[in-house]
Amino acid sequence: MSKSPKRPVVSDGGMDSAYQVPAEVLGEHPSGELFGSYITAKDGETTTGIPHRSLIQEEDGIEETVSQLRAALIRHHASPKMIARDRRKIMNLRRQGYPISDAGLHRFPKVDNTQKGNLAEVFLAEYLIATTNADLPVYRFHENTNPDESMKGDDVLAFDFTSQRPRIIVGEAKFRKKPDKKSVEDIVSGLVRSHQIGLPVSLVFVEDTLYKYNKDELADRISNCSLQMAEGKLDLYYIGLLLSTRDSKIKVDQHTDNKLRSLVMISLGMDDPEKLLRYCFEKIEEEAYADPD
Length: 293
Prior knowledge:
The protein has 293 residues and is of the alpha/beta class.
């Protein structure tokens, strides 16, 4: 993955096509920006020739990464309007002498497995925004009526309309206490299923959500993706993330299948992924509902 333009130069093809996807699909690793200060990157390929960016979270930078990720988790789970409404409830309860628990606030998951999945998904989404020209049109967790349940559909669906030929990035993310062969296989098989279906399963969800919030112009562009895909005028790329220990790189290198020529893998390794998880969520409500400066 060399330092080349962020936009890929080869479009997606069938799984029988020769593998050609350039590593530049990810763009450069952030330097001194989001996730750039204490997360190092090394670019290479798996044993099957799939581009693989290996990220390592340094232990001495865990607090900064937690700060960045917690802010992103808040943003993905609750809009500023949601947070403002919750703050008003809290203030009214305090004035009347009631505990905050009576407000019934439940924006962030408390179930361990949901926290893990959401953390990996948010990291992948934010990393793609930082390293590509793609944007995330909606924060899908805003639409989740039960924060403790994992949402169905694509983990990440990002869109790049900066050039004449649009592209969609489909992301699949897994958090594992320890990396193994199955976790890598699950990531790849999920992306292969998405490819076989054709258009991403969450495309209509994104479109409907944008229309719901009166973002009609962007919704129209996404709605048009179906026609552009049928006409061969749209590119699809698939990116998988395994968030686990420092052995993540080894497992991704060893067990990534090459069924998708438009696949790029990312591994994020660290000493203790459950420590990162715990730190990100243990004070998330306090930060979300703190009085604004």
